[in-house]
Design goal:
Length: 65
Amino acid sequence: MTASPSKLKAKGSWNETKGKLKQKFAELTDDDLLYQEGKEDELYGRLQQRLGKTREEIDRIIDEL
């Protein structure tokens, strides 16, 4: 099962998740975490590039928040 911002929105607020990611990874900016419906792949691409992690690793990080 993979996480996505739309799944996270169902669990809670994306803004809350975004805040937790920024606390954990100080190098992330608001632009890095910009979520637009239907553009989850772009969000994952920015996170992968900024953090140097795979999509699966990012899914795990988000699931653990």
